[in-house]
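#onboarding

Welcome to the new folks! Below is a worked example of what a typical request in this channel looks like: someone posts a single protein sequence, and someone else replies with the predicted structure as tokens. Don't worry about understanding the tokens yet, we'll cover that in week two.

Example request:
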Amino acid sequence: MQSTDDRYVSHKVFSELTYYAKFYEYLSDSVMSFSTTGTTAIMNIDTYVFMSMKGTIESIHLVLKDGKLNDAYALLRKYYDSAMINAYTNLYINDHAGQKGFFIEEINDWLHGRKALPRMKKMSTYLKKSPLLSELNQLFNSDDRYDGVRDRCNDNMHYNYFALLMLNEGKIHMKERIHHLEQLRSDIRDVFILNIAYLFIINEHYMMSSVYIDYLDASMSPPEGSQHWVASFIQEMVDNVLSEVRPDILALLKRTTSMKLT
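Example response:
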């Protein structure tokens, strides 16, 4: 198979990447009004984080269109790291809010370029040890899919196998190209789920519909319980992604958050 073949050009990964990018755009707009506790940020810093993730997703789309499957895995590794950093910063803020003065120095210093965040291993350990995330981590660790994602990203980054190098030239005929493309599709979806699952367990209000705030902005009393209503684009994602791929994670979100997921 070459990257110009119909099976490659029309593969589902391209429409799914377009969907993920649009989702992050909606999410970026949706969380903008929520302040980032313990920092001097005027707007929610996740507004910018999600737009950066959108850009990475769009970059994966571009290099795949050009037949550079190996480079797409390098970008997937960046996306994976972004998802972990996003989970870490939000959890760290929630854990340390109001403990030592107004500012949470580790996050605020990172925000202003004064200090880097910890290494990925330390951030990963912090997430794994969190009581809030214990049930979710058990679900993530119920199989080895995320170990596999990291291994494939590293294999492609470091050319651990010669065949992976050739994946970056779409004109070379490789019968296993479609297999790698399908695997990449699954890996991107799993990282997307990792990101949103961590995010919505840590900050369930990120799922909130704009109705509640819209009423408050208009100096009107919001409908009873509307603070727990879920934004339509979130519910659409739940229906099309979580319920199909990880119903166990969806069940956890329904059970442990106050948001009205259906």
